[in-house]
Recover the amino acids of this structure.
């Protein structure tokens, strides 16, 4: 096979570069122009909606893996999850962000490294994820409420979006939760 006839490289993980750039800019703008409390309210509302959708499901319905088309903001690798797997992913990722925020705010602690492969849910995730996300929603709110200006402090890199301040990680938590709430809605339409 000649150099010119090689097929284009397929990105095995993540989302397309242009999409990442748009999302990063949107997250940065949200962090800049929305108040901390407004972003917290967005996060809470998206988590609430995800929990409402999941709470109506039986064990079998919640664990049924469904293939959905990839949509803006979602990795192709996560498009065959169940509702409970999606909730578990939200718990894992948002727990990491919850731990990251005070470190960034203080500007003293090093960043927490959470490799993307550690954010993947297990197929056996069950209805316990409903309570886990509900508990995390409250814990996240408590942590954010105790912090002052999230624009102060240090920054940590996100693997796709670059260096983020605590305010930007906070906005990411709201965006991320919204994206996966929409994923749950799409899963439920297919089943």
């Amino acid at each position: 096979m000649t150099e010119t006839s090689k097929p284009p490289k397929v990105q095995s993980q993540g989302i397309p570069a242009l999409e990442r750039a748009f999302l990063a800019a949107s997250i940065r703008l949200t962090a800049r122009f929305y108040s901390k409390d407004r972003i917290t309210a967005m996060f809470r509302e998206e988590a609430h909606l995800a929990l409402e959708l999941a709470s109506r499901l039986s064990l079998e319905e919640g664990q049924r893996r469904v293939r959905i088309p990839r949509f803006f903001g979602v990795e192709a690798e996560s498009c065959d999850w169940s509702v409970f797997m999606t909730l578990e992913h939200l718990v894992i990722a948002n727990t990491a962000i919850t731990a990251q925020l005070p470190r960034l705010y203080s500007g003293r602690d090093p960043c927490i490294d959470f490799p993307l492969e550690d954010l993947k849910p297990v197929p056996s995730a069950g209805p316990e994820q409903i309570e886990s996300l509900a508990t995390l929603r409250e814990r996240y709110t408590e942590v954010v409420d105790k912090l002052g200006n999230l624009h102060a402090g240090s920054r940590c890199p996100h693997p796709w979006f670059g260096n983020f301040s605590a305010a930007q990680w906070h906005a990411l938590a709201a965006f991320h939760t919204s994206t996966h709430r929409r994923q749950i809605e799409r899963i439920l339409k297919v089943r």
